[in-house]
Amino acid sequence: MRSLDSDPAKNFSSPQFLKKLKERDHLSVTQIVQAYTEQLYRTALGLGFAQDAAREVTQSVWTTFFEVVSKFEGRSHIRTFIFGILYNKASELKRDHRRFDSPDPIEEILDQRFDVTGHWIKPPIDPEKFLMGTESGALIEKCLEGLPLNQRMAFFMKEVEERKSSEVCKILAVSGTNLGVLLYRARNRLRECIEGKVARQGA
Fold it and tell me: What does pTM read for this prediction?
């Protein structure tokens, strides 16, 4: 993903820009809102929020951002700071709906695929058939909706937006090891979901 800050005129992490932003300079505020609003909205949609809810989350991010930007010391990229707020807002909303961090049975699911000798009980679907099934964007999106928010956020930023692991770790406030676990669980959940749907379609 090309960094917005590659344009010198939009070096949002420079001390000069941050100073103007904290002073509520109209041009600086306009620039950063225009630069990241669409990304925030798309990410919220990618996390499974409906359009109205995605707009609500995006607006809430900016409200909180301008409430706390005076405390931002520039130790991380300002984009990381903004998307960290998005993650927290999304988590709050999901908790309100009692769907955040539900129990994760993926290890049990994987164990059921092997016998005591370590051989497959339920082999993976044929790779070609699996790839044909994943060509459907709607199918993938449906399976993504079933992921716990932290796994979905990690997968979306790393695999869809192709962000660096270090940035995803900062946004989610997790270690590299924990990020690996989130991605591992997300990929296995997605595979289970997609294989199941493809198998039912081919039945």
Answer: 0.63
